[in-house]
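Attaching the record inline, Q. Sequence:
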Amino acid sequence: MCGIVAYIGKKRAAPVLLDGLKKLEYRGYDCAGVALLFDGKLEVFKRQGRVEALEPARTLAGNAGIGHTRWATHGAPSERNAHPHRYGRICLVHNGIIENADALRRECLARGERFSSDTDSEVAAHLIDGLYQEENDLLRAVRRACGRLSGSYAFAVLCEGREEVVCARMRSPLIVAKGEDGAFAASDIGAVAAPGRQGCVLEDGEFARLTREGAEVFDAHLHPVRRTFFSLGDEEALPGKGEYPHFMRKEIAEAPSAIEKTLFEAEKHINSQLCEVLCQTEYLDIVACGTAYHSGLCFQYAAERIAHIRTEVFSASEYRDLQPVAMPHTLTIAVSQSGETADTLAAAQAAKARGCRVLAVTNVARSSLERAADFVLPTRAGREVAVAATKSFQAQLAALYVLCTQLAKGRNLPAPSLAGLAVLAAETLARSAAVEAWVPLFCEARSVFFLGRGADRCAALEGSLKLKEISYLPSEGYAAGELKHGTLALVDGRTPVVAVVCDEALADRTMNAVHEVYARGAPVFLVTPFEALARAREVTACALIPRCDPAFSPMLSVIPLQLLAYHVALACGNDPDKPRNLAKSVTVE
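Structure, as predicted:
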């Protein structure tokens, strides 16, 4: 989840590193640091907090360096625990978790070595330094050290007195790039993308050596690997905020475009081979985390209602431990915005090991999940910078709903049209401005409940997650019919309740729950296309949205919930783009 950037070349390294780290800050912003190599000597500059605290380092000399922005795993966010970590002649940055760090640390302590941080990462610097003294070859020292590590890692390593950067990857993303101005490495393409540069994705167990002449890739035995480098154009670069105050608000506004582009692209990817697999599929398993898990729940409702196919949704982090029975003709669908979510990737690999075909739904080309899957349905949300997922949720739904209609077609079943959903999403955005007036009753809330039935419950779960992520208010999404089985005890006048009611067949029963919470003094807010419900005396306020088929309604109903979370976060004084303790790309388990 941390951000890594490395550079060696003709330019001064410090500005390259800082500019790259700013583009990677969505991966972690607890603390940050850079290390520069100048005249064979290393200089390290680290600070607690965000990348902007590193600006004094911009003037440091040196044409080679490494940088890091951290999301804390081992050790509290502090300057002491910030990367880069140095021991002896070695300085490195690390993304991942070294699972046997405690045992290795004990070995180092027994040799009389001292540690200057609480992190697992520093252990690797100690190992590499000792092995470098034996090898006098940085690449070989890094390779031998990695052979002793368990867990996941992406490393960029500097050594005092050597004009090179050595990189290594195992279950943590790392991009290598080269151009006329030098060689680069980063956790994300956007950090190093520019016209004229080319890049490749390191595979697990591979190494790279960056020099002023370019980048070389090696396999696990340090044999050179011939790789095809792809162009890194401006389209890969991370976007700006434009006219919006925050990325989250901009990305909510981009949902209609994300839907339209994804519907077009997903339909193109339903090729004859995938159609053949879909016709043979009898069971669907979905593996995902967080918002992607909720998109899987929405798809489950649509697939069972429209395509009449048995579907089960698993939290990816639980999938391997549950070891569900692998039924014949099961297609596993792995959903991840980044394509690097460690739990989802591991679940997809476990499904393949059990003989299942895997279809990836991801927003990032050349991601680990895309490369591991048998089939891919790409989402076209564009770069999503805010930590809380918004437009990527609608894009995932668009891809999954295309899959749903194809499954129905293969079974000679009628399916609702997806045409016009992007237009309806734009109309929903225009109508959702009213939620800003709801904010005062949420800022003083003790807790918040989101209720719904069927597909509306799925939207309620996602609305609750958004509010938790960026406002830090205790919140829960709940099946409306389950409220009275215990949870109603928590409801009082300081407990706002948001009810999502988009399925006319279920509306009366959802409104029963509204009556129950109203009777306990709770203010009730409604998201619905039905004007008659908006006029109910129990309803404090309502966001009226357009009608669509109930199976596809979460694509629209979640928009006012995303905006509500955004405005509540602002009123609470929080940064909606960078919520505390969270990072965008969850690359550790």
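The mean pLDDT is 93. The radius of gyration is 25 Å.

More tomorrow.
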